[in-house]
Every structure is written in C-alpha cells, then in structure tokens.
Amino acid sequence: MADQIKVLLVDDHQVVRRGLRTFLEVQGDIEVVGEAADGAEGVARTEELKPDVVLMDVKMPVMDGVDALRRLRELDNPAKVLIVTSFTERRTVVPALRAGAAGYVYKDVDPDALAGAIRSVHAGHILLQPEVAGALLAQEETNSGQGRGGSLTEREREVLGLIADGRSNREIARALVLSEKTVKTHVSNILMKLDLADRTQAALWAVRHGAAG
C-alpha cells in the first residue's frame, strides 16, 4: 500500500523488537521495514531503508540513541524519530529532544497509543508526555530566547502558535493560505530570532510565554 507508514525498529533487545514487530505488523497502515540492534546500525539502516518513522531506544551499545539522532540530523535524514524507552530521567529526556526526536514514549505505552504516536509524528506533530514537556521547559527556562518574542512579526507569531498546536508545515500552510516554502521560511526566522534549535523548543517556548493558541 502506497500510504503505509514505513517503520524501522532500533533496540538492542531482540525480545523488544520482536514484540514491537508482532504488534505493528497487524496495523493496516504500518509496515516494519527493518530492525537494528544499536544506534550505529540504526543510522545505517535508516539511510538504506528510508523509513518514515524510526522507533529508537536511548540506551544501546556502540552508539546510543541520542548520538544516533545527532548523526541523522547531520545527514539531514528526513525520518521522524520516536524515542521508545524506559528511562524517564531529565538527563535522558532533554538531550534526546534537543537532538531532534519528534516524540517520546515509554516502553510500557499501550500498544494502540504507540500506533497512534507513530501516526502522529509521521503527520508532522510533536509528541511529548506531559512530564517530559515539563522537564524540557524547566531545562530551557533560563535559556530559551526569553524576552525576544517582541522581534517576531505578527505572521511569525501566527505560525508559532500553530507550531505549538502540533501542526505540520503543510497544515500551517493550509490554515494561513501560504505556500509550504513560505511557512518553512517563517519557521527558520522564528528559530533564528528566538535562538532555538528546533520546532520542539519553539512549541515549548510558545507554551511558556503564552504564544500558543
């Protein structure tokens, strides 16, 4: 099926990969295209198989999930990475999000919720558990572009509000009757003006500073 979401599983525990594959293979719109046992293999397989979504563990041998995320960003790989882990400490959460994770769920997540999470990040949404969002907000509190919101244009504020709502560039373009290229330009300007690294930080900045819709 052309509209299937291609998923790569990256986890050093075979039993976890097998369990994820068994569940996901019964989803009509999700196809598991491959597996990897560590971050380095995960990067290589992502480049080779070109999945839409990568389910990535954090703690792995050879290369951990955070370093794998950074490497994928360096390669400008378009795959969305959904972190699936049992680790909830802030020192694990924040680096993964800063490295470019599109979402973050726990290994005990309800199977149907996991499938929903895959669909959500594939659609361009940011997916964070409430406590994870709180951890990142706390980390960014003193260094998140605070006080720079006044430099945003009215249109950029509209775009920022829609980012905070979890809208993809395509959805923002439709809502504001703009081209996707124009929306991408606005997003780049917002990140530059607020000195933020990515959409996740922009969304959390908007929540923190009351710019969300």
Record keyword descriptors for this entry.
213 residues; alpha/beta; 14% strand
Brief account:
The protein has helices spanning 14-24, 39-49, 65-74, 90-98, 111-122, 130-140, 154-164, 169-176, 180-194, 199-208, and strands spanning 5-10, 30-36, 53-56, 80-85, 103-106, 127-128. Helix content is 51%, strand content 14%.
Explain this structure.
The protein is globular, with a radius of gyration of 17 Å. The longest helix has 15 residues, at 180-194. Helix 4 links the parallel strand 4 and strand 5 (103-106). With 213 residues, it is of the alpha/beta class. The model has no long low-confidence stretch (mean pLDDT 83). It is built from 10 helices and 6 strands. Strands 2-1-3-4-5-6 form a 6-stranded parallel sheet, sandwiched between helices. The N and C termini lie far apart (36 Å). It has helices at 14-24, 39-49, 65-74, 90-98, 111-122, 130-140, 154-164, 169-176, 180-194, 199-208; strands at residues 5-10, 30-36, 53-56, 80-85, 103-106, 127-128.
* Oligomeric form: single chain
Write down the overall mean pLDDT. 83
Quick one: overall form?
Answer: globular
* Uncertain ranges: none
How do the SSEs run, as a string of H and E?
Answer: EHEHEHEHEHEHHHHH
**What can be said about the biggest beta sheet?**
6 strands, parallel
Structural class label:
alpha/beta
> Which strand order spans the largest sheet, edge to edge or round the barrel?
2-1-3-4-5-6
Strand content: 5-15%
Number of strands: 6
Radius of gyration: 17 Å
How far is it from the N-terminal to the C-terminal residue, by CA?
36 Å
Helix content: 40-55%
Number of helices: 10
